[in-house]
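Revision sheet: structure tokens.
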Amino acid sequence: MATETIRSLRISNHDRGSAGLTYVYPVVSRRAGGISVGINFNPNNACNWRCLYCQVPELKRGPAPELDPERLEAELTGMLRQLSSGEFFRRFKVPEDLQTLQDIAVSGNGEPTTLKDFDQAVSIIANILEGSAITSRIARVIISNGSMLRREKVQAGLALWGKTGGELWFKLDRATSKGLRRINGSSISPRQVMENLETAARLCPVRIQTSLFTLDGAPPSPEECRVYLDFLAEAGQKGIALKEVMLYGLARPSMQPEANRLGAVADDWMRHFAEQIQSLGLAVRLTP
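Predicted:
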């Protein structure tokens, strides 16, 4: 396991190549309160969307590269072995109060469900986690824009993920066609987003993940907010079960050309928006 490339892990270090591996990267997570083990299916920095706030440098359009199943298995097995023995914490000088594995997150440098053999990759991860004592009670998350839910292999992978205790964090930044194009660089229609969300919720537990920020000094417009709330209300009317809506501010700087146009929304604005979502009967988590 090539882990000599860095001397320590810090909260500020979210480099997905920090451990010198292809698929697996450890992060000291302030939000999680410990170690998050990330799994990156997109080491080529390719994604089918281009979100204005994306923190991936040299982002390009495209799918994930071909899966190397043996490498994925070896890297994740090796990482969990070092975490279990404590060698990882000593080698990377992790602060004592953060020496706890909190979650496994399939969240990399692009959309993970563009991986052609997504179901095979999920099966490998699930089998390793089931055989590891250190992962028995940790959160298991796939973070996705949900755009590939029509694919049979994606549905099969998410169904397996759900059966083994995993969740899907479904990106929903805007709910208008204009907003999806402007913020996410996507031509997907809101109707297709709703269909994908409905499919996802049948397969595994789902949380909505929404990024909120100002663009050219202005927060999301009243119209965008109204349509977003209507979208969530319609999802409820359809019986789509959502565990939570997670509202995020800009945790780290964007690496996209529009970075200097983005800013933080006011705390009062975000709290008011959260209250509007709560009025729909949904749980909300705020992370400024």
